[in-house]
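Worked Example 4.2. Consider the chain below.
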Amino acid sequence: MATILVAGSDFAEREGRALLIEISGHKCAMAGSLKEALELLKEDSFELAVTDLQLDGGMPAEIVSRFKGASPKTAVLAITKQSGKAIGADSVLTIPCSPKELFQSIENLLGKIKSPAGPISAARIKPHTIQQQRAAKGGRSQQQQARGG
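Applying the procedure from the previous section yields the following structure tokens:
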């Protein structure tokens, strides 16, 4: 479970993102302005900040720079209506986006934070089924139990 700051000037969007993040099992704090976000970043420890790049009408690069200045170890997921790259952001998500895309972006960034080599790629994970895991531990699979074996 990570602690995530959600910053955005639109109340409904900010609340919606925070709710989705909490549903996914993370703790969440919210800020409705750049000033409030910077104060929270200085006061508390966050693994990730999810911010709308239209926050207080500021310039995207300036918003990201100020977030990084207030908390250099906090990763920044920039959310924008225009495609492109936010200078200095760890990741950029273009809206509209689905909750799944938001979850994936957050989990990808958190995976990079927790592992210096980045998240484990699916290609490096060997597939294991529950039956294979039980068999390796000497247990019986559901199929074996159903057959009486």
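Confidence is low (pLDDT under 50) at residues 115-134, 140-147. The first helix runs from residue 11 to 23. Compare this with Example 4.1 before moving on.
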